[in-house]
Each structure stands twice: as C-alpha cells, then as structure tokens.
Amino acid sequence: MDLSIALLGLIIIVGLSSINWRRSVKAALVIVILEGVLRKWVLPQASDFIYFVKDLVLLGAYLKYYFSSEPKYPFKSSGFTITLLMVIGWCLAQSFNPSLGSPIVGFFGLKAYIFYIPLMWMLPSLFQSEEELYRFLRNYMLLVIPVALLAVAQFGSPSSSPINMYVGGQEATATAGGAVRVTGTFPYIAGYSVYLSTCFSLLIPLLTLPQTPLWRSLTVIEILLVIGTSFMTGARGLLFFEILFVVGYICILWFTQPSIAARSTKQFMLPVVLISAIVPMFFNKAIEAFSSRVAGSDSETFLDRAFSAFAEPENAMQFKGFDSYGTGATHQAVPALRQALNLPWGESPPPAEGEMGRVVLEIGPFGFLIWYGLRLALIFSLARVYLKLKTPFFRNLALAIFLFHAINITNQLVVNSTFAIYYWFFGGFVFLLPTLESQQLFSSKHWVQQPHV
C-alpha cells in the first residue's frame, strides 16, 4: 500500500474516532471480531494496515478521553499502579536496547506491552449504569451466532475452500480427524480460541440472570455454539480452559456464597441438561475429530507443554543472562517491519514459543518479574473486588473476569492482540464494577432484581 494513502487513512480514522470516544471503544471491540474477514476476504492486499485499524480507533478514543475536560476515574496510588509505572518505565527503556538495531522496532514492541492498558481507566466512564453494561454485553454476545455459524460451515468444507484460509491467502493446513480446524472470522486459530474463551467467560454469568424467555433462549444458543465450535478448533487448551472455568466458578461460588450458589445452580439446571443433550447430537463429528486429535497426540506431551511454561524463564536466561534483546525482539511481525522500513537487523534472538520465555528474552529477568507482578496484582485486585461486591450480577461478573485472568496467566498476551485487548478491557472491571455498585446505592431502584429485557 502507498505510504501517503496509508498516512491519510491513519489521520481519517484517528480523527473520526476522536469524535465520540465511547462509540470508538465499543467499535474497536467489534473490529476485533471482523478484522479477519477484512484481512482474509475483503481487502487482503491491505492486510497489514487493517491489522492496525482497531489500534487507530482506540488511539482516537484515548486522545478524546484523556485530553478532554470531562471527569475521569482517578489514578490512585496502589501496589498495582506502582507496578504498572515500573513496567512502563522499564519497557520504555528496553525499547532503546542496542540489540534491536533500531528503536522503531522497540516502539513497536512497546505498543504490544502497554497500548491497551489505558482502557482500564476508561471503563468507569464508558458505562453509566448496570443496565447499560448488561445491554452491551448481551448485544455483544449476539455476534457469537454468525461467527460460530461461519465456523460450522468451515468445518464442513475442505481445506481448499475459500472460506478456509489464513491471512495472505494461505490455505488452511491445520486439521484434526480429517476436518479443518476452524478460525471463524479470525485470521488464525489462536484468535478464534481467545474469542471463544472470552465469550464463554461472559455467557456463564449471563446464564444466571433472570432474563426474559427470548434473551435466555438466545444465551443458551450462544453458549451451545461456543462449546460446539470449541471442539471444531481442535484446541485442547481451549477445552481445558472451559472445564477449569466451570469447575472454578461453581466451587468458588459455593465456597464464598452458598445461598447465591444455590440460586445460580437452579438457573443452570435446565440449560446444562439441554446443552448436554444437544452438543453430542449436533456436534458429534466435531467431538470425534477433537477426540482423534487428542488420541493421536501424546497426553504427556500436552501436559509437558502446559507446565513447561514455568521452566521457560530459566531456559531463556541462558542466552543473555540478566540482559535482554529489547521490546519486540521476538514478535513475529518484526522481520516484515524491518524489511518494509529498511531497518538494521540487530541481534537475532533464539526462537521462543511461550509467553514467559519471550518476556525474559525481550525485557530481561527484572522485566519478567515486574510484568508478571503486574498481572498477578490485577488478579488479586479482581479477587478483592469479587469478595466486596454485593450485587449478584456484579459479583458473578467479577468472578468470571477473575477466572478469565487467572487461568490465562501463562497465555500469550504480548504477541496476541486479540487476547490483549480483551485482557485489559475486562481488567478495567476492577474499577467499573465497584463504581457502578456505589452509584446504585444512591438509587432507590434495584434494577438487577427485575427480569432483564
């Protein structure tokens, strides 16, 4: 794409996005879902530019929100914010690491670490009431239906079909049991797996709400499609996440508030029975394909891979010791960036697949400690918020977000932009939910006790 055209597009997108920052943030979450459609089928020649569209939309929203005069959620001093400032300062310093060859690569890597974090402080101003939050989540989950139906069509089509391709026109090569491992509207399997885990985390608390028959039926259909197409991805980690999530959700709910857990269990009963009966009936081939993938691989290899993440930091230190290669050094898009801008190549880091190893290679052992210290601080903050909240919907939502963050502690956050935007957006619930509940205390209406329409 011509550089002048790309620059013009950048200015237009940022300018339009700065008009209404609330709409822009919500639009960015929709673009996350549709990005793959544009990159694979609509404008494949502009794939690289489209990859940054959601970031440009958010940039416009950031500029409007943080430079406007409207009231903002205060940036309070706490263990989390202190650790966050340390992470920002350290990553900024690492973006000038000489091993990178160029600070441009470092700034690109810096974006992967911190660009979506400002979303957290925007959340309390994004939603003005519990009803507005519920309606947004309810409507956002409706997008699951067309995305999952596309995945079903992909599963039933050969790998040579136009609907089964990755970015760049590459034919889908990942299969399980002779069937294609689906990607939905996303560029790759990893993005769709993150989307499914996110939707699963939100649909469980929505399932416990007293909704109207129409919306309750839609919620059941959505979670049915999420579970069914989870088998179609062939992603063992995704199914493992869903199992851990349900077990953790039920156990924590029963341990902390047995009375609410009893009511939630009643809400769960019929949907669970329906899902248990319908999934094997309509997704039998997907279950068989997934089972063949599990049977065809060594279970010990999967477990070793799952737990090897904790050994990656020590292994990564063998290459640079307490030094590092700089932010963005291991990012898969960096070679293309160097070639496009004719940048010096710098040092070549060793290959790294897991997140923990990548972080050590890029920002060193100290950076690793404060980065994962930040993630742990957010998890503990979500746990505290869950225990303090009184409103059932808020508590269940806080529990779901806590589990989403805790179970994904070793997952790719730096190099997976789909996961990153969801991670920090829902991390903002640590500020949003207490704010909404405190506002609700001053209102005589208890909207949550009424059926949601």
Automatic annotation (TrEMBL):
<feature type="transmembrane region" description="Helical">
    <location>
        <begin position="189"/>
        <end position="207"/>
    </location>
</feature>
<feature type="transmembrane region" description="Helical">
    <location>
        <begin position="394"/>
        <end position="414"/>
    </location>
</feature>
<feature type="transmembrane region" description="Helical">
    <location>
        <begin position="139"/>
        <end position="157"/>
    </location>
</feature>
<feature type="transmembrane region" description="Helical">
    <location>
        <begin position="238"/>
        <end position="256"/>
    </location>
</feature>
<keyword id="KW-1133">Transmembrane helix</keyword>
<protein>
    <submittedName>
        <fullName>Uncharacterized protein</fullName>
    </submittedName>
</protein>
<keyword id="KW-0472">Membrane</keyword>
<keyword id="KW-0812">Transmembrane</keyword>
<feature type="transmembrane region" description="Helical">
    <location>
        <begin position="108"/>
        <end position="127"/>
    </location>
</feature>
<feature type="transmembrane region" description="Helical">
    <location>
        <begin position="420"/>
        <end position="436"/>
    </location>
</feature>
<feature type="transmembrane region" description="Helical">
    <location>
        <begin position="79"/>
        <end position="96"/>
    </location>
</feature>
<feature type="transmembrane region" description="Helical">
    <location>
        <begin position="366"/>
        <end position="387"/>
    </location>
</feature>
<feature type="transmembrane region" description="Helical">
    <location>
        <begin position="268"/>
        <end position="287"/>
    </location>
</feature>
<feature type="transmembrane region" description="Helical">
    <location>
        <begin position="214"/>
        <end position="232"/>
    </location>
</feature>
